[in-house]
Design a protein that fits this description.
By secondary structure, the chain is mainly alpha-helical. Helices cover 76% and strands 0% of the residues. It contains 13 helices and no strands. The radius of gyration is 20 Å and the shape is globular.
C-alpha cells in the first residue's frame, strides 16, 4: 500500500483515528464492525486490485471465526451485515454522495431493520440487552479485580465502585446510540480501506474541519427530546438514544466549525482542544454542541467558502 503523498498520509491518520474511535465506543467487537462492511464493499463494488476476492475471503474468515455460542456472536455479525449492506446499497445508488450522508443513512437503515425484527420478536431484544450489560459488568469486574490484586484489597473505595456501576447502568441504556456512533466510525475506516486497496485517488474520508451532515436531521434531535421528556420506558429510552446519537454528531460538527473558522487543525490547537476536554468535558461538549446546532441555520463555514466533504 503506497502512501507517498501528504494527502494519503493524512487519510491514513484519519482512518487510524476512526479505528480508535470504533474501539473506544464499541461495546461489541470493533473488528467485526470494520471487517464485515469492508468485505461487502470489496465483493460488490468494482475493484482494480486483482487479489481483492482473496483479501475479502481472508477478512471474512477472520470475522466469522470464533465461538458462535459466545454471548453476542450472532448479534455482532448480524448488525455489521445490516450496516454494511445498507452502506453498500446507498453507495451503489449514490456513488458520488458524501460519505457522511451514506454512513448516517446506513446506520439509520440498520436501526430501522433491527427495530422491526425486535418488534416482531421482543424477547430477542431482552436477550441482547442482557448480554450487553453482562459483558460490561464482567469487564468492569475484571478491571476492579486486577486493581485489587495489584494495589491491594482497598484500592477501590466503595463509593467509586458504586459510581462505576451507575455508569455501567447508564451505558446500558444508551447502548444503541453508542453502537450507532461506533458503526459510523467503522464505516469510515472500512471505506478508507476499500479505497486504498483499489488505489483510488479519493481518500474516502475528508478532514474533520469539513464535517457536516444534512440539516434536516435536526428533527431527529427534536423528536428525541420530545420522546425523552414526554415518555418513559421503552419510548423514553428511544428518545434518550436519539438525543445521545445526534448530540454527539452535533458536538463533532461544532468542533469542525471551530477548526474551520480558525483556519484548520494545528498541533497547538489540537493540544488546546484535548486539554479543554480533559479539564472540563461537560462544558466543552455543551459548547461544541451549541456551535454545531447553530451551524444548522447559520452555515458559518459556507460563508467562509469551505466546501462540502465527500
Amino acid at each position: 500500500m503506497h502512501l507517498g503523498n501528504p494527502v494519503e498520509r493524512l487519510g491514513l491518520l484519519r482512518a487510524l483515528g476512526l479505528m480508535v474511535a470504533t474501539g473506544g465506543l464499541s461495546m461489541v467487537n470493533p473488528g467485526i464492525l470494520v471487517a464485515v462492511p469492508f468485505v461487502l464493499l470489496v465483493l460488490f463494488l468494482p475493484s482494480r486490485f486483482r487479489g481483492s476476492v482473496l483479501v475479502a475471503g481472508l477478512v471474512a474468515f477472520l470475522a466469522f471465526g470464533g465461538n458462535p455460542d459466545s454471548g453476542l456472536w450472532y448479534f455482532e455479525r448480524g448488525w455489521a451485515l445490516l450496516v454494511g449492506g445498507w452502506f453498500l446499497a446507498l453507495t451503489l445508488r449514490w456513488p458520488g454522495g458524501a460519505f457522511i450522508s451514506r454512513g448516517i443513512g446506513a446506520v439509520g437503515g440498520a436501526f430501522a431493520a433491527t427495530a422491526l425484527l425486535f418488534w416482531r420478536r421482543p424477547g430477542q431484544w431482552a436477550v441482547v440487552d442482557w448480554a450487553v450489560t453482562s459483558r460490561m459488568e464482567d469487564s468492569a469486574a475484571a478491571v476492579l479485580q486486577a486493581l485489587r490484586s495489584t494495589v491491594g484489597p482497598q484500592a477501590i473505595p466503595a463509593a467509586a465502585e458504586s459510581q462505576l456501576l451507575e455508569v455501567i447502568a447508564l451505558e446500558g441504556i444508551i447502548f444503541p446510540a453508542v453502537l450507532g456512533l461506533a458503526s459510523l466510525a467503522a464505516l469510515g475506516a472500512a471505506w478508507w480501506a476499500y479505497n486504498r486497496l483499489n488505489r483510488a485517488r479519493e481518500v474516502g474520508i475528508g478532514p474533520l474541519k469539513d464535517f457536516r451532515f444534512n440539516d434536516q436531521l435536526v428533527w431527529v434531535l427534536i423528536l428525541g427530546f420530545l420522546l425523552l421528556l414526554g415518555s418513559s420506558g421503552a419510548v423514553g429510552r428511544m428518545g434518550s438514544n436519539a438525543v445521545v446519537f445526534m448530540g454527539v454528531l452535533y458536538a463533532l460538527r461544532g468542533v469542525a466549525v471551530v477548526l474551520a473558522l480558525l483556519g484548520g487543525p494545528t498541533i497547538l490547537l489540537g493540544i488546546i482542544l484535548v486539554v479543554a476536554f480533559l479539564i472540563a468535558a461537560p462544558y466543552f461538549l455543551a459548547g461544541a454542541f451549541v456551535f454545531g446546532l447553530g451551524d444548522t441555520w447559520l452555515n458559518l463555514r459556507t460563508r467562509r467558502g469551505v466546501q462540502s466533504p465527500r
